[in-house]
Structure formats: structure tokens, C-alpha cells
């Protein structure tokens, strides 16, 4: 202890000497001295720092091809494909802000038995994709290229054969560019697990179309994905919706029948009252398994507006934040190759940030599961101190 204090004083002396004369100190700093500076000044408390997700290192990955990572948080501030309240372009900033109390030194996840930020995976915040708010065709192309460009990066750890993207939305239409990128990268269609109040497999003709049809919306991106062959279709029970409670078009079940014909299985919000979170978890896992690549998309409107009013198309009667988190914890065995949290529209949330807090927690749980899955796949599950052995 005394020697640490002594080194500290020594350093302080050198620093003030360096400040005292005009020329900068260009001598070599030893690793010990740099470590001492880090220990002294490197801490970011929950309320400090300039606001990357969970205080992770922030790098503009899109302009630096040399940056490598195992998992990247990437913002997609885009909201011009919505049908009701706009504002999700402010989602990434707001979710990052609400993640402030996730600091690497206090992020051990008891249910997962790991700290996702202090384990094998190099997790960084790649910042935001600069997406035009003026033209959705250009915006879609920008997102597709950005996701593919980042998804093709070299991973750092052998535990991550390919790097994974954790996208902060943005409106839900961004899932189409994400699925296009995954199809290109994996060379095959992907299964989807979709938490949402709404189907989002809507034929664009279901919207008033007298003046023309716009296919790319936050309610039809899965319909487009199906048409483009981006979704796994070797079984009719290929992808899963969970938390549904939307009204349907017209006066019959056509929307649901269309959805079934696109190979989706539906779990409604109400089902949780009969089968509980455990029943929802079992249902999802029995369909998706632990091997096939799955894209996990969380529309924050799966939560009840009591818990997440800050969203574009709120629907009463949804799940609690605790129920959603419990379900996410229960499906940690899925082979998630990419994920998003979308439709956080902070202008409609309350000053306590409940919606963005829920979204930030969802991201934390998904990151925990991705890191844990990497350990499980290598038969190294469970050890909290695994990092040193890898
Ligand atoms: C599955 O998708 C592929 C690619 O779009 C398509 O060629 C094929 O006909 C589809 N199969 C079924 C059973 O729908």
C-alpha cells in the first residue's frame, strides 16, 4: 500500500513537472505507470462519462476497418417507416443513457453466473449508423451495408466464430436490413424470435393503398423478409412471435392465416396467464432449439404501456418488464447470431426513463446470454473466473 501511495505521489510530481514547462512529456511511460494512471483516473461511475452503452469502449467502427470485436452494440437511429408515433430515432441515445448504471465493475449477472463485460468477449460500442431521415430506400441500403460490413469483421476470440451485432433501434423496419445482412454472411436463411404486440408480417396491401404501395414499413418487414427468402422455411414452425395482442385487419382471421403461411408460430400475451413464463419458455425452446441460428428481435411494445409507454404503437394488456426478463433468461440456450431492441421512442416515456431502462436491461440480458452461450458451446459453462483460463 505504502509503495502504491509513493508511486502515486511520484507520478503526481512528474505530471505537475510536465505541466510546469511548455513542452509535452514525450518520454516512454512504463506499463506500471499507465496502470497507475488508469487505477487513479480511469473509473467511470454510473453518472459520469460521455455515454457509450454501459461505458463500453466507443469506436466509430464504420470508419475504422481495423477494429475487431466479438460483440458490437450499434445504434440505428431511424424512424421514418412508422405508422403512428415517430421518435424512435432518439432510441439509441436514450437506451445508452439508461444503461449508465451498467459498469463493468458492477455487472455480474447472478442468473447467468457471469459478468458479460468481464469475460471472454470483446464487447464495444460502435456508435450509430448515419441514416438519412429523408429517403427510406437509401436508409434501408445504408443499414443493410452497415450491418453486413460490421458483421463480416474478424472476431477476437475463438469462442466467437463470427462477431455479433446488438442493434439499438430505431423503428422495427431495421430488422429487414439486419436479416438481409445475416443471409449474406451466413449464406442461409435464419430463424427469428420476435417479441412484439404486433405481427409485423403484414402484407403491405393491408394498409390503405389507393395512392400506391409502400412495402418497407415497421409492420411489413417480416413479410418482405419472407418474400426475399431471408427466413428459414424448412418447417412450417420456423419462427416465433411472443407477446401478441394486436387488432387484425378486417373482420376475420386472414392476418393470422397469412402469418401461419409465412411459417410463424404465435404466442399471445394472454397465454402467460395459463402457462406462465415457464410455458412460454418451453414453447419457444421446443420450436427453436439450441443449434439453429436465431435472430432475436425485441420490440419494446411487447411490454404493457404501464411499463413502456415510450414507444411508437402502444397496446394495453402486455407483459411486465419482469416477465419479459424472466423469459429472456429462460431462453439463454438459443443460438442467437444477432439481436435488436427497437421502437423505444423516448419522447413518450416518463422522467424516470422506465422504457429505456427496460430496453437497456434487455440488452444486458441478451449480452449475458451471448457470452454464456459461447462458454457453453466450448464446454466451459459456469465458471465465473473463466477469463483467466481462456
Ligand atoms: C423456401 O424459400 C426458398 C427461398 O426463397 C424457396 O425457393 C422455397 O420454395 C421455399 N420453400 C418453401 C417450402 O416454402
Automatic annotation (TrEMBL):
Superkingdom, taxonomy of origin: Eukaryota
Sites where the protein binds Mn(2+): 172, 196, 198, 200, 299, 301
Any one GO molecular-function label of the UniProt entry: metal ion binding
GO biological process, one term: putrescine biosynthetic process from arginine, via agmatine
Coiled-coil ranges (or none): none
Co-factor remark: Binds 2 manganese ions per subunit.
Stretch forming the signal peptide: 1-20
SUPFAM superfamilies the record matches: Arginase/deacetylase
Name of the molecule in the record: Arginase family-domain-containing protein
Gene source species: Stachybotrys elegans
